[in-house]
């Protein structure tokens, strides 16, 4: 009797995660660098779901902060820096990519990617020794917390306040014009000088139609 092949149980946090690049550098004076792409690879025989966390989620917009990667495939995660200010120059932030199996909630693996904003590519600081750079990053993130990164934040639109007073008054004038007698009518108690020609009523009807469209769109 053949035994079924079962996938070995994975320990939480033990699965290697493959992400490129491992560092994101944004330049304030280069608009094109404000958008970076992280590529998450899945070399395994099973599908993975992922989640993107960040130490400073308010500074970034992440497209598809959660998702899935098919076996032996990859997915691109777009990250945009949306708070490009001088006070953020040289500050290190971190993104954490957590992966798990589709049917499980525990994180099988994680990978952290550093992100920093610099004033200009032409003003690159001298490269420090790897030991000094690593110590600086570790000191900054000693007590850091990771927060869920919203996938996409829509820009709020002001609520329309309805048609303006001028629009309403103009609409009432047009309606009153259409209710007046047409020029030439004999049996009318309305004074003759208030009788309107057909052309004037057509203009009033046309303007009233335009105002109605404007009101419906607000």
TrEMBL record:
A GO term from the CC aspect: Golgi membrane
Q: Does Transmembrane count among this protein's keywords?
A: yes
Q: Which UniProt keywords apply?
A: Endoplasmic reticulum, Golgi apparatus, Membrane, Transmembrane, Transmembrane helix
Per UniProt, what is the membrane topology? Multi-pass membrane protein
Signal peptide limits: none
List locations, semicolon-separated. Endoplasmic reticulum membrane; Golgi apparatus membrane
Family annotation (InterPro entries): Ig-like_fold, MOSPD1/3, MSP_dom, PapD-like_sf
Q: Where is this region: Disordered?
A: 115-135
Question: What Pfam families does the record point to?
Answer: Motile_Sperm
TM regions (residue ranges): 159-180, 192-216
All residue ranges annotated as the MSP domain in the record: 17-113
Q: Give the function comment from the record.
A: Plays a role in differentiation and/or proliferation of mesenchymal stem cells. Proposed to be involved in epithelial-to-mesenchymal transition (EMT). However, another study suggests that it is not required for EMT or stem cell self-renewal and acts during later stages of differentiation.
Q: What is this protein called?
A: Motile sperm domain-containing protein 1
Lineage in the entry?
Eukaryota, Metazoa, Chordata, Craniata, Vertebrata
